[in-house]
Write a structure and sequence with these properties.
Strand 4 (129-141) and strand 5 (144-154) form a beta hairpin. The longest helix is centred in the first third of the chain and has 25 residues, at 2-26. The strands form 5 sheets. The protein has a 5-stranded mixed β-barrel with strand order 1-2-3-5-4. Strands 6-7-10-19-11 form a 5-stranded antiparallel beta sheet. The chain has a 4-stranded mixed beta sheet with strand order 17-16-12-18. The N and C termini lie far apart (108 Å). Helix 2 packs antiparallel against helix 3. The protein folds into 2 domains: 15-162, no CATH class; 166-413, Alpha-Beta Complex (paralog of FGE (formylglycine-generating enzyme)), CATH 3.90.1580. It has 9 helices and 19 strands. By secondary structure, the protein is an alpha+beta fold. The relative contact order is 0.13. Helices cover 24% and strands 23% of the residues. Keywords: Signal.
Length: 422
C-alpha cells in the first residue's frame, strides 16, 4: 500500500509539472486556445537611464519594453488608417510630426507584460529599438494595452506610402549658387538654404537608436551649404597636401585631421572674403532632410545611396542623385564631420544650436582628445539622415572608416535680427 501511494503521488507530481515545462520552453504563458495574435512594430527599450527626461514612458518599470504597432489585428489596421488620414500630402512640419507621434502613442502603443521574454527582448534589442513581430494575448489594464508574449522574432514592416514618399521641402533653396574659388581655378558651389524649423531625430514608431530622441530645432538664419563634400583636388589646392589613402581628384578627401579641416576653412574664408566653417549637427540634418520632419525611412533615400556605402573612398562625388535641395552625397561616401562635439543627445527645443562647450563633462573623449559628431552613417545597414557617429581629432571614425566633410558659409541676419528696429 505504501509503495502504491508513493507511485500515485509521483504520478500527480509529474502531471502538475507538465504545464510549467511548457511555459519555460514556449514563452511567458502556456500556448493553447488563447486567441493569440501577432502584431508587428517598433519595440523600444530604455537604454538611457542616465539621461533625463526619460526617453519614453517606461510603463510598469524601467525594463518594460513598448511596441508601437504598425501591422497586426484589424483594429490596428483601422487605427493606422485613421492616423494616416491626418498625415498631410505635403509632408510633416513640426506640429504635424508631433501630432502623428502622439496619435501612435494614444492608439497603437502596447506595453509588453513583464516576464522572461520581455526581459530577453530588453537584453537583446540593439541600441534601444528594433522591428519585431510579437505573438501573444492582448488585454487592457490600468488604461494601457498590454501584450503577454508567447514568442517574438525579427520582422519587416511595410510603412504606409505617405511615410515612404520622397521628402519635398516646404521652402525652396536660393537660386544662384555662391561660388567659392581656390588656387588653380577650382571652384566649389554652395547653395543658400532657408531658415526654418524641424523635428530633429526619429519618431518612436520608427526603428531608431537611443540618441535620436525627437526634439524641435529652430534655425533662424539662412546658410549656404556646399553642393558636394570637399574633394581631394579642392583640399589639395587649398592645403597643399592630401591625406586620403585612395587617391582620386573627384573622390571626397578622407581622413583629414580635425585641425587640418579647421585650417582649410580658415584659408578658404580668407581667399573668398566669407566665413567658412563646418556645419553644426542640426544644420547637417536639416539640409539632409530638406527641412522636413518626415520619418527618415532608409528606402526613400535609395537613389541617394551608393552601393558600397561602407567605403568612404569608393564613390566619386555626384555619382548618385541629389536631394530635393540639390545637395549631393549627403548619405554616401563616408561619415560627415560636423562642428559639434559628440555628447548625449538633446531632448528639448533648441534655437540655433551649436553643440556643447568643450568643457562640458558630457562631451565624449578618447586618447586623441574631444570627439566630434559625425552624420550620414554609411557603415550601418540602416543609412538615413538622423544616424550619429563620432570622429577623433586625428581623422578616424569610432564606428570604423575615415571621415569626410562638407562646408557651410554664413549668410544674412537671423529672422529675429530682421524684426529689430534700426
Amino acid at each position: 500500500m505504501l509503495r502504491r501511494r508513493r507511485i500515485g503521488i509521483l504520478t500527480v507530481m509529474i502531471v502538475a509539472l507538465a504545464p510549467a515545462v511548457a511555459r519555460s520552453s514556449g514563452g511567458d504563458e502556456p500556448p493553447g486556445p488563447r486567441g493569440d495574435v501577432t502584431i508587428k512594430g517598433n519595440v523600444l527599450c530604455n537604454r538611457a537611464t542616465d539621461l533625463k527626461p526619460w526617453a519614453w514612458d517606461p510603463g510598469d518599470g524601467d525594463h518594460t519594453p513598448i511596441v508601437y504597432a504598425l501591422e497586426g489585428t484589424p483594429a490596428i489596421a483601422e487605427r493606422l488608417q485613421e492616423i494616416m488620414k491626418e498625415y498631410p500630402d505635403r509632408g510633416l512640419g513640426v506640429e504635424d510630426a508631433l501630432k502623428i507621434q502622439d496619435e501612435f502613442g494614444k492608439h497603437l502603443k502596447y506595453y509588453i507584460s513583464p516576464g522572461r521574454l520581455a526581459e530577453k527582448i530588453h537584453k537583446d534589442v540593439e541600441a534601444g529599438s528594433q522591428l519585431l513581430a510579437l505573438t501573444g494575448s492582448i488585454h487592457e489594464s490600468g488604461g494601457k494595452k498590454w501584450i503577454t508574449l508567447t514568442r517574438y522574432e525579427p520582422a519587416e514592416v511595410a510603412f504606409p506610402a505617405k511615410m515612404r514618399a520622397a521628402d519635398r521641402p516646404f521652402a525652396p533653396r536660393g537660386g544662384e549658387p555662391l561660388v567659392l574659388k581656390t588656387r588653380g581655378g577650382l571652384t566649389l558651389n554652395c547653395f543658400l538654404l532657408p531658415a526654418g524649423r524641424f523635428l530633429q531625430g526619429s519618431p518612436f514608431y520608427q526603428r531608431r537608436y537611443q540618441d535620436e530622441y525627437p526634439h524641435e530645432v529652430v534655425l533662424t538664419r539662412p546658410f549656404y551649404m556646399s553642393e558636394i563634400p570637399v574633394t581631394q583636388e579642392i583640399f589639395e589646392a587649398v592645403m597643399g597636401k592630401n591625406p586620403s589613402l585612395s587617391k582620386g581628384a573627384r573622390l571626397p578627401v578622407e581622413g583629414a585631421a580635425f585641425a587640418d579641416i579647421l585650417e582649410f576653412c580658415r584659408l578658404l574664408s580668407r581667399e573668398n572674403g566669407v566665413s567658412v566653417r563646418l556645419p553644426t549637427d542640426a544644420e547637417w540634418e536639416y539640409a539632409a532632410r530638406v527641412g522636413t520632419s518626415n520619418p527618415c525611412l532608409t528606402e526613400k533615400y535609395k537613389d541617394q545611396l551608393s552601393e558600397t556605402g561602407s567605403k568612404p573612398d569608393s564613390t566619386p562625388v555626384r555619382s548618385k542623385q541629389p536631394n530635393a535641395w540639390g545637395l549631393y552625397d549627403m548619405l554616401c561616401g563616408g561619415w560627415h564631420v560636423t562642428g559639434d562635439y559628440k555628447s548625449d543627445n538633446v531632448r528639448t527645443k533648441q534655437v540655433d544650436p551649436k553643440g556643447p562647450a568643450a568643457n562640458d563633462p558630457q562631451v565624449h573623449r578618447d586618447a586623441t582628445g574631444l570627439l566630434h559628431k559625425t552624420r550620414g552613417g554609411p557603415h550601418y545597414d540602416h543609412r538615413r539622415p538622423n544616424i550619429h557617429g563620432a570622429a577623433t581629432q586625428n581623422g578616424t571614425i569610432w564606428e570604423g572608416g575615415s571621415p569626410i566633410f562638407r562646408i557651410v558659409v554664413e549668410a544674412g541676419p537671423s529672422k529675429s535680427d530682421q524684426r529689430k528696429p534700426s
